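Work Package 3 (structural annotation) set out to generate three-dimensional models for the target panel prioritized at the project kickoff. During this period the team completed the workflow that converts sequence records into discrete structure tokens, so that structures can be stored uniformly alongside our sequence database. As a representative example, we reproduce one entry of 286 residues exactly as it appears in the project archive.
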Amino acid sequence: MLGSRKKDIAQCEEIIKKNSLTFYNAFSKINDKKRREAVYAVYAFCRYADDLIDEEQDIEGLNQLKKDLDQYVKGQTPDNFRFRALRQTTTAFYPKNYAYQPFYDMIKGQEMDYAFNEIKTEEDLLNYCYYVAGTVGLMLTPVLSSKHQLLNEFAVTLGYAMQITNILRDIGEDFQRGRIYLPTSLMQQANYSKDQLSRGIINSEFINMFEYLAQKAENFYKRALSDLYMFPDDVKIPLGLSIILYRDIIQACRNAHYDVFSRKNYVSNTRKDELIQTYIKSFKRG
């Protein structure tokens, strides 16, 4: 049984390492092994749901995941490594009366991607960001802090920041999938058309629109960083690293002259090492 549990967690760890080296670099630095492994388990669950729609367009698979979650909430663990690893996590860190609403809301976010509707306003954008990213933060706060009920705003705010970052980085890729996450109202205000978007036009109007959303994301990151004091000491540095490493994706897009159409911008390993060392030094000084 112990060997099986280790194997389940190892599979989850491999998923986060393969799909988000940025998060892995940050959260693998958590000293508490159980917390660290719980992060991997939550990530693996969320990645599976995301891939069902983004990679496979498998709405039936997503519906089955929701049914499996229903059984899980009732105490019956589906026989696959993701749910077995998740059971280790929820047993160790979640209160017995936990409602699992963030898990259901995250699945709803994937449904929103499958039956995509135009994002008309900034309010619509933040609503979408809650369902696909803020929910993940809400899943993780019970793992990262015993005071998780005080951290709902932190989780949602950080979700806004990270999802807006994803949207800016993936503008071109998302358009190829038939999705435009840039709010219609913002595109109109910037005088930037869908035709220009389809042709990958990078002009002053596009840059202004990009920077408007980038500034919103960076303000959300700033708010999240200011709330790190609420977390246990062994979590503060890894969580802070996840924030500053992900935030730097925006700068990577700027460094690429805002080309988010023909390339996937990322933070280089050299830059990550630089950010990690600088953050750790500043944290110790503070």
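The chain is about 75% helix and 0% strand.
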